Amino acid sequence: MSKLSKTHLLTFMAMAIALNIVGANIALFLKLPIYLDTIGTLLMAVAFGPWLGVGTATISALINWMTTDIFSLYFAPVAIIVALMAGFLIKNQDKMHHLIWKSFLVSLPGTVTASIITVILFKGITSSGSSLVVQFLAGLGLDMTTSVILVQAGTDYLDRLISLVLVIAILKVLSKNMPFIKA
């Protein structure tokens, strides 16, 4: 394996940040009930470790906050937690069936954090498409906190599972042409 240069690392991180921003904006503008805002963060965390995932998450949240989604900065702690969990739990060589339960472990602490932020700061309603589901459940008679927790748990898990499957697939492809990425 060749040594990873700072240029390779910065280029890869810039690509990961762009991936986060594009994913977040697709989910935001289409009002999807998932977020797609941590694909790049997870890519960096799995490929290069949790701390580079944290850097990617932080920069992505700042750019999204300044450009398209004022809510994104408030949820930066969620992306940071996701980066840490994925960086320590997920390995590039993980089998797809391991991702089913590892996605749960990666998403759970972020779900707790996101639920607290959503309920306390935003009274249950954010720019995310999942807020539509929260409002629907609240309209059926569930209290807002329960609605947020239920929706957050489901959407976070689905988002992390989809994102991690994509990340592992991307890394498998990239490892064939980039010796600094382990397959």
From TrEMBL:
Q: Does the keyword Transport apply?
A: no
Any single GO molecular-function term of the entry would be: transmembrane transporter activity
Keyword annotations for this protein?
Membrane, Transmembrane, Transmembrane helix
Instruction: Name one matching Pfam family.
Output: ECF_trnsprt
Q: Does the keyword Cell membrane apply?
A: no
Provide the transmembrane region boundaries: 12-30, 42-65, 71-90, 99-122, 157-174
Matching InterPro entries, A to Z? ECF_trnsprt_substrate-spec (IPR024529)
Q: What is this protein called?
A: ECF transporter S component
* Organism, scientific name: Streptococcus hillyeri
Organism phylogeny: Bacteria, Bacillati, Bacillota, Bacilli, Lactobacillales
